[in-house]
Amino acid sequence: MVRHMMAKCTRIKSRSLYAGRCAGAPALVWAGVPAAAIALALIAGSWDAQANETKAGARLHDRNGTDVGTVAFTATPNGVRLHADLHGLPAGTHGFHLHAIGRCVGDFKSAGGHYNPDGAAHGFDVADGPHQGDMPNIHVDDTGRLEIEVFLPDVRLAGDGGLVDSDGAAVVIHAGSDDYHSQPSGAAGPRIACGVIGQEP
Length: 201
Known about the structure:
- By secondary structure, this protein is mainly beta.
- It contains 1 helix and 13 strands.
- The protein folds into 2 domains: 2-51, no CATH class; 55-196, Immunoglobulin-like (Sandwich).
- The chain has one helix spanning 35-51; strands at 2-6, 10-11, 18-19, 26-30, 55-62, 67-76, 79-86, 92-94, 96-99, 138-140, 146-152, 170-174, 191-196.
- The model is unreliable at 1-52 (pLDDT under 50).
């Protein structure tokens, strides 16, 4: 036997995790099943859904298809933390951006422009900037290796405008450095490496 009753909204740790349903919406309660057991099932399901939205990654390759490393993304309460472990890159300073489309073919122009859901101008040195996909240049030494972390307070992985949406997003490395002010992308030159952001590589 199933009966409907109004569920009281109970906040549980997360900003978005509730036992029951809010705003007067009915919750299903199974007769003979302890309320605590139902609440625990709801909580477990919510945590499972959240876990699927807290990690993502990209495996980058150059224009020859050679693997040049990985970039991992972790959602936090205050934005997204990026960890890049790269190798086989040319020495020098390179633009390092998030791009709006999860497609890396040919010269990597398939990845579109910078990830920029808010329509900002490009560049850290521009009053109306930066794009949400703008990141500091990376500096690669003669070994071709680099490991860095970047915190992205205005980026989210899932949901409307998130990196992992219907058309995806990509990590792109450019041949030259981003000057932090030229429109639309910092005059960083050709795209030399690209990786589609999705589930962890």
